[in-house]
């Protein structure tokens, strides 16, 4: 009897999570339908469904915590990690160090995980990683044709476009066209190399150092490096900055 009760509890929790996720998705994608259904089912006044997706996520989080399915301390730890410890700021530091230190760059291209660890970053999901260098005659582009394999510890969460079917297919079929849509126009004599990330092997692009940046410090250089430039869909210039 005890075994059966435990199994039912597990099934119940799965069902609840599935229902909660479905409901949240419906509110995000079709708020108008959700509100219309609310009005039809209830004639008395209720609090309106928040229009801000952030508020909806917070409401779902509160519900999961209330049901004992999620530990709020664990959520806070994860959020803090992705805000302060994981993300493109890490990859930018790796790139900037390679720009100012030729010996480090050589180690990075030869053994990326080991060189990255020198800066205190653990590759995590990207334990097997290769860094590919852009140059005047070669431009590298990273994609995952199967899903969304991505060096999270160095670049943070993958953007939606990286996971989209159009990008995953066209990056291989028409890389020059994809780059043009991202605003990168390359001369015809520049070779484009496409690297397909997998669960076992991830890639990181070492972009070209922008002209006119010789007087900048390593920290100032890191501020110029963007996530997109380390995927290969953007170049670094003195006008770039931030993490996109």
Topology diagram in text:
Elements: H1 2-29, H2 31-41, H3 53-66, H4 72-85, H5 88-100, H6 102-110, H7 112-118, E1 129-133, E2 138-143, H8 152-155, H9 160-163, H10 165-173, H11 175-181, E3 191-196, E4 202-206, H12 218-224, H13 227-231
Parallel strand pairs: 1-4, 2-3
**Gap from first CA to last CA:** 54 Å
Anisotropy-based shape: globular
Q: What low-confidence regions span 5 or more consecutive residues with pLDDT below 50?
A: 1-11, 21-46
* Average pLDDT figure: 80
Q: What percent of the residues sit in helical stretches (DSSP H or I)?
A: 40-55%
Taken as a percent bin, the fraction of beta residues is 5-15%
Please name the CATH topology of the largest domain: Nitrile Hydratase, Chain A
Order of helices and strands: HHHHHHHEEHHHHEEHH
Order of strands across the main sheet: 1-4
Structural class: mainly alpha
CATH superfamily of the largest domain: Nitrile hydratase alpha /Thiocyanate hydrolase gamma
- Main pleated-sheet profile: 2 strands, parallel
Structurally, how many domains make up the residues?
2
CATH class of the largest domain: Alpha Beta
| Global Rg | 23 Å
Count of distinct strands? 4
Q: Any descriptors?
A:
single chain; mainly alpha; 2 domains; 244 residues; two-stranded parallel ribbon; two-stranded parallel sheet; 13 helices; 9% strand; Nitrile Hydratase, Chain A; 4 strands
Summed up:
This protein is mainly α. It has helices spanning 2-29, 31-41, 53-66, 72-85, 88-100, 102-110, 112-118, 152-155, 160-163, 165-173, 175-181, 218-224, 227-231; strands at 129-133, 138-143, 191-196, 202-206. The longest helix is centred in the N-terminal third of the chain and has 28 residues, at 2-29.
């Amino acid at each position: 009897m005890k075994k059966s009760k435990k199994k039912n509890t597990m099934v119940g929790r799965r069902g609840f999570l599935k229902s909660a996720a479905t409901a949240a998705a419906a509110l995000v994608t079709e708020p108008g339908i959700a509100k219309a259904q609310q009005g039809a089912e209830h004639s008395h006044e209720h609090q309106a469904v928040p229009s801000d997706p952030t508020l909806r996520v917070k409401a779902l989080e509160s519900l999961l915590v209330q049901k004992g399915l999620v530990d709020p301390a664990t959520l806070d730890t994860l959020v803090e990690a992705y805000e302060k410890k994981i993300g493109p700021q890490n990859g930018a530091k790796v790139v900037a160090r390679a720009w100012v230190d030729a010996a480090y760059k050589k180690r990075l291209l030869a053994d990326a995980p080991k060189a990255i660890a020198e800066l205190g970053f653990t590759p995590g999901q990207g334990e097997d990683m290769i860094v590919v260098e852009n140059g005047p005659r070669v431009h590298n582009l990273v994609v995952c044709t199967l899903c969304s394999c991505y060096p999270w510890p160095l670049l943070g969460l993958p953007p939606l476009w990286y996971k989209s079917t159009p990008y995953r297919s066209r990056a291989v079929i028409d890389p020059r066209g994809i780059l043009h849509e991202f605003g990168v126009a390359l001369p015809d004599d520049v070779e484009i190399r496409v690297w397909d990330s997998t669960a076992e092997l991830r890639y990181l692009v070492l972009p070209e150092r922008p002209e006119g940046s010789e007087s900048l410090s390593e920290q100032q250089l890191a501020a110029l490096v963007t996530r997109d430039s380390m995927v290969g869909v953007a170049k670094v210039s003195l006008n770039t900055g931030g993490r996109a």
